[in-house]
């Protein structure tokens, strides 16, 4: 399950924040800040997978074992950096990290087709389309579509 889908620019300003699990607003803001600092400080040669930031890590207790944690608990941060934007997915251990990279790739390609060479300004001024693209691909934290043509067709139908 996907817990959150985030898009930041290079200065850390969120361009899209979609949380699929309930979190307090103050925790969401702290989480966004923590994740951006973790991702932006990594060298470009690093892999695209990160452990959870300290804010999302389960409390350390002698009674909790990995099997006792909720299957919906976030466990992985997957990201891609394209030009001036970071695309970040926070997910559970049940999601394939490589499938999440593919999800990000299809999301970016769909935006590129819809906006013809997408840039950050397209995301700012057409945020509704950005949300529609994401909702065509992910519903309630579950990936429902990764076919580029179907996503673009569905968004075109909704927007027009």
Give a description of the structure.
With 160 residues, the protein is an alpha+beta fold. It has helices spanning 25-40, 97-115, 120-125, 127-137, 148-159, and strands at 2-9, 14-19, 49-50, 76-82, 85-91, 138-139, 142-143. It has a five-stranded antiparallel sheet with strand order 2-1-5-4-3, sandwiched between helices. The longest helix has 19 residues, at 97-115. The protein starts with a strand and ends with a helix. The model is unreliable at 64-68 (pLDDT under 50).
Give me the strand/helix succession: EEHEEEHHHEEH
- Terminal-residue CA separation: 30 Å
Tally the beta strands: 7
Question: What order do the strands of the largest sheet run in, or round the barrel if closed?
Answer: 2-1-5-4-3
Give the averaged pLDDT, no decimals. Answer: 85
Helical element count?
5
What profile does the largest beta sheet have? 5 strands, antiparallel
Structure keywords:
160 residues; alpha+beta; two-stranded antiparallel ribbon; 5 helices; globular
Summarize the structure.
A hairpin with a 4-residue loop joins strand 1 and strand 2. It contains five helices and seven strands.
Helix-strand layout with pairing:
Blueprint: E1 2-9, E2 14-19, H1 25-40, E3 49-50, E4 76-82, E5 85-91, H2 97-115, H3 120-125, H4 127-137, E6 138-139, E7 142-143, H5 148-159
Antiparallel strand pairs: 1-2, 1-5, 3-4, 4-5, 6-7
Helix pairs in contact: 2-4, 2-5, 4-5
């Amino acid at each position: 399950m996907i817990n959150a889908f985030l898009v930041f620019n290079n200065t850390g300003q969120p361009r899209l924040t979609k949380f699929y699990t309930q979190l307090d607003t103050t925790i969401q803001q702290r989480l966004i800040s923590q994740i951006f600092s973790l991702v932006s400080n990594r060298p470009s040669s690093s892999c695209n997978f990160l452990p959870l930031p300290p804010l999302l890590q389960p409390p350390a207790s002698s009674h909790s074992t990995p099997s006792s944690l909720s299957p919906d608990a976030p466990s992985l941060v997957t990201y891609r950096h394209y030009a001036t934007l970071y695309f970040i997915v926070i997910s559970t251990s049940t999601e394939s990290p490589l499938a999440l990279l593919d999800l990000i790739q299809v999301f970016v390609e769909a935006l590129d087709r819809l906006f013809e060479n997408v840039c950050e300004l397209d995301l700012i001024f057409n945020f509704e389309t950005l949300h529609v693209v994401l909702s065509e691909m992910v519903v309630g934290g579950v990936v429902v579509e990764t076919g580029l043509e179907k996503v673009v067709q569905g968004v075109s139908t909704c927007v027009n």
